[in-house]
From TrEMBL:
Annotated motif Histidine triad motif, positions: 99-103
Name of the protein described by the UniProt record: HIT family hydrolase, diadenosine tetraphosphate hydrolase
Any one GO molecular-function label of the UniProt entry: hydrolase activity
Coiled coil: none
Pfam families xrefs: HIT
Source organism (scientific name): Saccharomonospora viridis (strain ATCC 15386 / DSM 43017 / JCM 3036 / CCUG 5913 / NBRC 12207 / NCIMB 9602 / P101) (Thermoactinomyces viridis)
Transmembrane spans: none
Top-level taxonomic group: Bacteria
HIT domain ranges (all copies): 6-115
Keywords carried by this UniProt record: Hydrolase
Organism classification: Bacteria, Bacillati, Actinomycetota, Actinomycetes, Pseudonocardiales
Active-site residues from the entry: 101
Length: 115
């Protein structure tokens, strides 16, 4: 737990969020500023700054984050229509919260390549 990390505070419930799904190790909650009808963030409860550091330290946990993203897509009803998973990493990707999070975006179509 990092006391100055917003998403660690969401895990410990000292900052409120709308939880969509939870396992022992992973939490999924709605983004406060949704960019699509479905916009859920899936995070490990343990603090890692980004996806690569999580996967290097704990590949099983990284797999659980991805599996939970798939569960969220089913819960949200976007698994058959399609959805986008995004891990913004570092300044060029506009990462703003340095606790790894997988954006699950769905409910509309997306352009490729991204802007
Ligand atoms: P990033 O830009 O780091 O990939 O994404 C961070 C995401 O966290 C943004 O989409 C932003 O809207 C979301 N966010 C920032 N603060 C909060 C908050 O307090 N609660 C929730 N639920 N989402 C937040
Ligand atoms: Zn954290």
């Amino acid at each position: 737990m990092s006391t100055d990390c917003l998403f660690c505070r969401i895990v410990e419930r000292s900052v409120p969020s709308t939880v969509v799904h939870e396992t022992d190790d992973v939490l999924a909650f709605r983004d406060i500023n949704p960019q699509a009808d479905t916009h859920v963030l899936v995070i490990p409860k343990e603090h890692y700054p980004d996806a690569a550091s999580m996967a290097a330290a704990d590949p099983k946990l990284a797999g659980e984050v991805l599996a939970t993203a798939g569960e969220v897509a089913k819960i949200e009803g976007v698994d058959s229509s399609g959805y986008r998973l995004v891990f913004n990493t570092g300044p060029d990707a506009q990462q703003t919260v340095f606790h790894v999070h997988c954006h699950v975006l769905g409910g509309r179509s997306f352009t490729w390549p991204p802007g």
